[in-house]
Amino acid sequence: MPLLPRLLRAAACSLAALCCLVALPAAAQDYPNRPIRLIVGPGPDILARIVGDKLGAALGQPVVVDQRPAAGGVVAGDAVAKAPADGYTLLLSTGSYTVNSALRSKSPFDFQRDLAPVSLMATLPFILVVPPSLPAHNVRELVALAQAQPGKLNYASSGNGTPSHLSGEMFKQMARVDIAHVAYKGAAPALNDVLAGQVQLSFLPAPTALPLVKAGRLRAIAVSGPQRYFALPDVPTVAEQGYPEFAVVGWNGIHAPARTPPAIIDKLNREIAAILRQPDAKERAAGAGFETVGSTREQFEAFVKADIARAAAVIKAGNIQAD
Predict the structure, then answer these.
(1) pTM of whole model > 0.90?
(2) Are 145 and 236 found together in one domain?
(3) With 0-12 CB in 10 A as exposed, 13-18 as middle and 19+ as buried, what is 27?
């Protein structure tokens, strides 16, 4: 090809690349100029609404909460993964996504590859509970009871592969006790059988367990997280009671489609962190059982990787299969 046409083509390519580089900051600078959709998969939408209302006010555009709880988060996650990477479709991510990443080899999207972390908003622990009739008041007594009756104690979960299942399986593996998993189709029937004493223990989400513990209908044995829970300060963690590697929390965060411009992700991260520092937001989140975090996106990415690795280790050791 003659020199002049080659130079012209090179100049045209350079101009096109420059236009793209200029367009991205402009788009981020103008963001947002229309409503933002926050898609919620499994779990309650309370934190999405607390943060969404304030985020909309801060950005000058409404944040619309869109609930899609089907298929354990697959529907919601796939919708966001395939949405335009422009910051107008976000996902309320939870521990269900990290568990599914470790458990399910076939999925229409890859949680780490197709979604970008924005912020870890809040965490909550699971509470290890037993019926008051069970003669165990702490982890040591519960383990001794299980060792004296191999295979006789059962633990309930809201379903195979759920965070409550993996919490129980992690406890079983670390304590080296023979307890049987009973998977229910949802949290309500599992809870009913624990209350009735037909199942001897369960790891319940803190907001579910708290009123039942305070009413004396269940006994709290331990907290699953790395530190004590603000609403049950007298209940020690599993780690404090002889199993220092035990740490499981439920969590809520925000993810965006991969390739969302970093300037948009940074803007969302800054606004969300500022919201979670506000006393009324912290108070409303605490009322729903959450402890607010407001991480950097790098911290959230590291948190997700660690959560997936932890779930994968439990799943492999327990030979857990997806339904």
Answers:
(1) no
(2) yes
(3) middle
